[in-house]
Amino acid sequence: MSQNIIIITGAIFGMLSVIFGAFGAHALKKTLSNEQLKSFETGVKYQMYHAIVLLVLGFNSEYTSQSIYWCFSIGILLFSFSIYGLVLSDAKGKKIRFLGPITPIGGLLLIVGWVLIIINSI
């Protein structure tokens, strides 16, 4: 995995988290309940945290690997994007239930990514 791809991926996820955060804070503020808005914001925060980690790893290639890249990238997609889907579908009264079990799988991948960073650093 090239450093540029890791950096670009981190930047795209970071950019999208700013867009989604603004969308949630402005466009969805009147549509979502406080609980739904908090869940949406959790997805945005975790997406941004891991986007920043991808950027740091892209600029410090000795600490990263393809496994870490994929754990964080797929973890963001499964964790944050399933939360977005759950919240938005719930707000429309048609909650997409199959997304519920996907969120913890994404979280597990994010955790594995962190564990791999520890292993690569030892």
TrEMBL record:
Keyword tags: Membrane, Transmembrane, Transmembrane helix
The organism's place on the tree of life at top rank: Bacteria
Keyword Repeat belongs to the record: no
Transmembrane segments: 6-25, 67-86, 98-119
Protein localization: Membrane
UniProt cross-references to InterPro entries, sorted A to Z: DUF423
Membrane topology term: Multi-pass membrane protein
Xref: Pfam families: DUF423
GO CC term, one of those recorded: plasma membrane
Keyword Acetylation: no
Family the entry assigns: Belongs to the UPF0382 family.
PANTHER family, per database record: TRANSMEMBRANE PROTEIN 256
Protein name as it appears in the record: DUF423 domain-containing protein
